[in-house]
């Protein structure tokens, strides 16, 4: 741990490295802070602050979850949901980032397409669902599309916002160094907008799981969202909460993974 | 680039052939639409730079030096006048502001112009190593800019501008944040490169000493809105010895002349 | 003197028309009540709101969720029927076949074997209704591929071949026909099937018996008016149009659910539905549920008596 | 138009001001670019590229809209929707920005609360609707809350992202000038994060209209979302599209208004 | 602030009373966790500054000058050693990097420290007007920083540091981006303020001329990891005349001495 250094005493090296080490430990501990929520809920249910018929305590839910894990019933649902989220996420994030970069760097594109996206964005997805079903069928394709739409706008606006914040000097350097339009995208706009892009990626990750939960209410026979809905329809409250906790946990883990990626890809920023 | 590069210009040989940069009646103003306010940055600027010449520009703060250089680099549009650049390659620029990319390491920053051109990794490494050695940054090759001091960042910019060996160098106070020792070393290196390669250099500085040490000619600008008020030939033969030069009366005469010109119409 | 206040949870469907009429034509006022109608979403939420006492009354449809919630102790006091399917055709809730499937030769229920059939959800009346329709062709729900979709989405699925058949409801069914997207395949599968019930919060029902009786009387008055030709009345159509957001033109000329004259629930139909969901494994308890313990018929009798006095 | 200037000719002043003027004209023109979409749609419907039963041409929708405007039927719905969106938006945006600022500036707060928000964010709103109804009732309050939740996370993550991008030097200046914690929030972190906050505000505006449409699908008897839902239930496609166009237009106008505000409050940025 | 300010320090009167800044055996290193790399920025730095003294620090680029100043300002934690600041007010700092807020106008930037303290708008206006006049920015009072030249931004930082009249001034190459004329004016103004108010000034510069023009003492730092290698008294009486001074042999001796020290262990 305490590497030698020509001019520093081991004690000084120790003190120098302590903050980084502490930071790492704190971070790992902090991953567990959401357990506080469960604790709060458990207590509230135990002292009958909340109605157990509708909000069974986490301990009761854990029992149900255990049975379901044992019967492997949950894993198929999780697999189906993850697959849909992954595909939809990629389908939305890639064009979102690309168009954000393009509109961010090109004033004419921004002028023509900007208002079009602004007008399309607030179109209520739930209202156009029948249309999506019409075009993409009742299968998984329409679920991918619903997620992709949600993800797209988050990525688009966050990337655009990030690109618009790029200090002019970086673009000047790129231009002076002889960067092509594409190289400016790839080598300057993209990395410079990375912090904003990561904000978008995290928001989009959370949103994907929210959206898939809603989308699996329609025309699905698998997936955690379907499972939640089916449980609620049959008033299987504990099972429903297992589903809610599972989908939230999936979202949470995705966000944590993105934060780890961010620390890796944006090493120059504070975290 | 909004710079007119007439075809004949390229084929040299004519009477004025040797002029690589020609600025005629340049006027540049900025307009702030939200305040409906016009800031005149430079008026009626005229000068030419011959091929292989080393020219320094001095002038009071805010007089338009950076603006002129940015126009030469094609980064800013002129309002009226004419600018002619006669070069096969775009001028390389060292910017006055901090301009290293925070997401790249020092050596990646220096290699940036090369990497855009698809130079092989091996070649890039070699050339970058040279320039890091030149600017005394070898030890910090893998550091990120936020781990550097102000002067070190400036040296990265200089290394980056030199890395791909362009014909014209536009340098905006490139050594402003450096101590005299480091500055001296880099001045010497710059002169060595300049003499060897025959580059054309336009160099903005605030130090009259520096201008007289480096330049063939010193252009003096008036306060904002800047215009060229003098074009002084620096008579010392090269290589110049900093200490020797100061013993020469002409050095002090020139220094005094520049000071007098700069003090003539103080900005405040 | 203060009028008793009752907040009632409804859904914006024509099945709830008696409440809209009773409210707008002043029947609730007539029986000395101050009734607020609040829109709600599903059955499970309604039971939850009533059982927890957040809202005192509402109506909901039968289904696995309801049976399970009663079993889990989320008890409410059931007082009367909401609506049932008529014993006649056209049915307000036919099983429809897509035009495309019809052209492809699906003309009978038994042709649906292995085909995709739209069902609104895995635990409610829609599933029961589809099962009854399939029964007509000797099929069960397991013989087809169930696709869970709400009726409006069926239109799209009919158009792009995503579904061969699907549960439907008026006025959507009529529109499907009009647009040439689908045809009625089965209409006589749910004659007299109980659709749902009116319920009160337990404590409220005990402490405010008179208010409940008055509420039911007003409801019955409006229900009888509707079931006896009220749907031809422009004024009533205006009211229903307002509450359901459906244009008057659309409301005209379609079939509606009805109610028993005295508002009582046909428990046989309810038991049949319970049995169905048990067989599907959707119930979390053994044996028939004790509906009688939560179904108070005395209040309805008093309401009928009160109405007879008028 | 052409103000005099001591050293510039009228012609030069003209040329100097031209870009800004052109920019203004282009911007105003660009507001109408979404009409292109309608045109495209009209043409596609007219040449029967798309199924008119599901996508009636805008001209047909305009007819329906006209009747509804004449009957004043739409205005009540618009009023109800706007009121819900406004209240919910404010309820979500204010705490979102505040918590974003606090977590951005305070590492301990970020460590403890950060993961809690990350865990709460992906909880599917549609699944916890019963919980919201139970706590906030079946009236408008629960609709405000649903919007507020959606808006909150967008504002929170965008503000946090913006604060994390503040150049350290600005915080150093504030500290050296003797700024209190609160002054650092108010005078440095907030303005410095404004570009990201505006990205959040625009995203949240779009989302509010998407969410209110969904919320009014469930348990409402007014509002454009209810109107769409009711039309949907009866396959009144033209009416449904009037609703969709209206709600999208409301969202679009809100986004335009926010962009105008942004130009005013972030005058130092490119737009 | 992580700076120890012992109580007795405040009540002056003791033998060492006049020392306002005391740095003992200061060691500062940076640790880069991702690369597991330690950069030693300064080792065993010792110096004191007496009340009312004007001290310049010179040293090669990257030797730790900025780091030491940031530690004095309480913006950076030291690794070992001791730093004592004896002042009722926090030292005011002029940063080396661009540090004006882009969202404030020039006059709002200058007024920033005052506005934090709730000084009346009228008083703020007066004081800001004074400082804008001093720094030659009156005409740009309502401009935003992106409309300024490099030197103008630097002048805004200087004005901001002076605006609330603190006891200690820490200035990190404050005039580095200014032409000699403007620099001269500001040097003069700074000296005038310093003489009138008895402030304590620690001033980093790369210009030996500047150091000798301004300072009571010049501290010379060695290359990274920096340490103090010399503490030179500047013997000229004030007010100093720049031109006169250069006629003095001591000026050249001192200049030579500093150069010698800086060149002793060149960084590269
Ligand atoms: N983008 C801009 N918008 C408005 N005004 C500008 C802009 N850039 C520069 N100016 C103005 O133009 C004038 C010249 O600026 P420039 O940067 O060229 O000066 P400079 O000679 O380089 O000064 P310095 O030595 O301080 O760097 C200044 O008055 C400045 O305020
Ligand atoms: N945040 C940091 N992380 C890592 N290393 C740093 C950091 N800040 C400074 N350093 C290192 O500390 C050393 C001293 O830096 P400092 O900025 O104090 O130099 P300086 O004397 O001010 O130089 P200059 O004259 O170039 O401004 C440098 O080697 C630099 O790389
Ligand atoms: Mg400049
Ligand atoms: Mg420094």
From TrEMBL, chains A, D:
Cellular localisation: Cell membrane
Record's protein name: ABC transporter permease
Keywords recorded for this protein, A-Z: Cell membrane, Membrane, Transmembrane, Transmembrane helix, Transport
Main subcellular location of this protein, as a coarse class: membrane
Domain ABC transmembrane type-1 positions: 78-262
Cleaved signal peptide residues: none
Membrane topology note: Multi-pass membrane protein
Transmembrane segments: 25-49, 86-105, 117-138, 144-167, 188-215, 235-258
Entry keyword Transport: yes
The species this protein was found in: Neoaquamicrobium sediminum
UniProtKB/TrEMBL annotation, chains B, E:
GO molecular function, one term: ATP binding
Residue ranges of every copy of the ABC transporter domain listed in the record: 21-248
The keyword Plastid is annotated on this UniProt entry: no
Record PROSITE patterns: ABC_TRANSPORTER_1, ABC_TRANSPORTER_2
Family designation: Belongs to the ABC transporter superfamily.
Protein name: ABC transporter ATP-binding protein
Alphabetic keyword roster: ATP-binding, Nucleotide-binding, Transport
Cross-referenced Pfam families: ABC_tran
Keyword Plastid recorded: no
